[in-house]
Specification:
Belongs to the FliG family. It is a peripheral membrane protein. One of its GO terms (molecular function) is cytoskeletal motor activity. The protein is mainly alpha-helical and 329 residues long. It is built from 19 helices and two strands. It has a two-stranded antiparallel ribbon with strand order 1-2. Helix 12 packs across helix 14 and helix 16 packs across helix 19. The termini are far apart.
Length: 329
């Protein structure tokens, strides 16, 4: 019996709070490894359980351990790692569940591009929709402009796809790439997938694609652009950019928009206002009380639209990479 299994049985047997306390002392890789083992637990004989955790025998049921499984693993990881759990959860899910095109996740994007470049745009769209956004962006950038447009339109329009079709495409591609390396309908693609890809694409690819796409489907471009930058992204702005935004947004818009904002973003806004303006805005926020989420989101979207217009006019540059761009003398 290996140590990972012992650890998984222990976690499955302990009360939730104690299991989380143990997980929180491990690093991310250790959490991932033991959580995968925990997710694979289907049932442990009481004799094995007693052998592993004799000191906890009195507080555990006398029968088999039934508290393992993927849901239990996800629950404990989320409680232990909090906002840092996404990457670990994704790796656990890929290890336990049959994820379409999972074999591509460890293949270089340029190798994938070589094999899919000549496929029908619908096939490429299906594949990209099941890959991480960064990989999808790299493959998209390597396609000819005309084909990029066709693929993006199909990703945006994609909804439910028959698992038989997904399996057929996956098997065919896996056979071709073999030298390199219960079912339900799969939801993939959509406008959000396009926005994620473009968010991690280089600026030149993004602009060229959106400009060309706007000639054929301006409404789709507007929808993509709305998803590429969201209200909370302002927390990444430097003070100069934040002040540009403040000059172009009425103070009356901020009170409603900030009702649903994070403390970090609120401080970013207040920190770039005058003392008087900041105090007035704080008073307005307190005076508003509870408001409808839809009203908050609508006001936030108004500010996002202003930011996008400032970007289009060249008055503001949204640095998606969150890194300072090098300056040339």
């Amino acid at each position: 019996m290996n140590d990972l299994r012992k650890a998984a049985v222990l976690l499955a047997s302990l009360p939730e709070e104690e299991a989380v306390a143990i997980l929180s002392r491990l690093d991310a890789k250790q959490v991932e490894a033991v959580s995968i083992e925990l997710a694979r637990l289907k049932g442990v004989p009481s004799e094995e359980q007693d052998q592993i955790i004799l000191q906890f025998a009195e507080s555990n049921p006398s029968g088999s351990v039934e508290s393992g499984g993927l849901d239990r693993a996800k629950q404990l990881v989320q409680m232990a790692l909090g906002k840092n759990a996404n990457s670990t959860l994704d790796n656990i899910r890929q290890s336990i569940e049959e994820v379409p095109f999972s074999f591509l996740r460890h293949v270089d994007s340029q190798n994938i591009l070589t094999y899919v470049a000549d496929e029908h745009p619908q096939t490429i769209a299906l594949i990209l929709s099941h890959l991480p956004a960064q990989t999808g962006a790299e493959i998209l950038a390597g396609l000819p402009t005309e084909r990029q447009l066709s693929v993006v339109q199909r990703v945006a329009a994609m909804g439910q796809t028959s698992p038989d079709i997904i399996h057929e495409v996956e098997q065919g591609l896996e056979r071709r790439m073999s030298s390199l390396m219960g079912q339900s309908f799969e939801n993939a693609g959509g406008v959000g997938a396009v926005a994620e890809m473009l968010n991690v694409s280089d600026r030149s690819t993004e602009r060229t694609l959106l400009e060309n796409l706007s000639q054929e489907d301006p409404d789709l471009v507007e929808e993509i652009r709305r998803l590429m930058f969201v209200f909370e992204d302002m927390v990444k702005f430097n003070d100069k950019d934040m002040q540009i935004v403040l000059k172009n947004v009425d103070n009356s818009q901020w009170s409603m928009a900030l009702k649903g904002a994070s403390p970090e973003l609120k401080e970013k806004v207040f920190g770039n206002m005058s003392q008087r303006a900041g105090d007035m805005l704080r008073e307005e926020l307190e005076f508003l009380g509870a408001v409808k989420l839809s009203a908050v989101e609508a006001k936030q979207q108004e500010i996002v639209d202003i930011i996008r217009r400032l970007e289009d006019s060249g008055d503001l540059e949204i640095n998606k990479g969150a890194e300072e761009e090098l300056l040339v003398e």
